[in-house]
Amino acid sequence: MAMAYSIKFSLRSPSDTRRFVSSPCFSQNPNPQSLLLNLLPSHSSSSFPKKILYSSARRRSFATVKSRMATGEKPISEDRMLVFVPPHPLIKHWVSVLRNEQTPCPIFRNAMAELGRILVYEASRDWLPTVVGEIQTPMDVASVEFIDPREPVAVVPILRAGLALAEHAPSILPATKTYHLGISRDEETLQPTVYLNKLPEKFPEGSRVFVVDPMLATGGTVVAALNLIKERGPENNQIKVISAVAAPPALQKLSEKFPGLHVYTGIIDPTVNDKGFIIPGLGDAGDRSFGT
To answer: Is residue 66 part of a domain?
Structure first.
């Protein structure tokens, strides 16, 4: 039996400067175009410079550069969770591949990895700190901008299915550390149980953490993961959740418990059945990724 839910949260398209707030109720086709949307004004960002010393092996031995946080637009409200559904055709393509019950295991896992690559790219667009300066090219001096390797970035895949969605994250994010977190869900009670915890005792100050959980259904698993991470230092605005498919019950829990959190998902489905599976969803992401 499928259950419908109502939820209030902010919905944004990261490839557009416009901001949207969804209506309280989902339609049967929950995408940004079909939801009832209210247009809100956008805001410009600010940067936070600090001087560092930058050395080059070529003709320029030293250059003064600035480290700045590449923040995007201000959130609608710092105490409001934002949900992003990037309107990219490749996201729609890979979600469609994942939905197909005829998709074999190797192709399913590859589709999950490709979807994760795009979602991590979108989530990191305005979030990673950079350093700017000058370097010597073979022809001349050029202004450059790099991701600041001194600023800690962590990826936390929730096993098992999170491994597939996070597979390409290291290729997107330079100088990334991966911390594995195993959480299983009881099929009867739907309550989460932690069976593997490789999180650090304390995340370095200023860490940015990507939590990768393909299926945000009832929300129990991701809430348990976020609680463990927050116990180790990061605040809500230092965490971004990456998922393949999300549903209202999970988004409602996250909105209530973690204001200011950002969630990036391939699609939002309207319902969850009495066994805790997203409808129409894509089935058990772990089983379909690994064939067991």
So the answer is: no
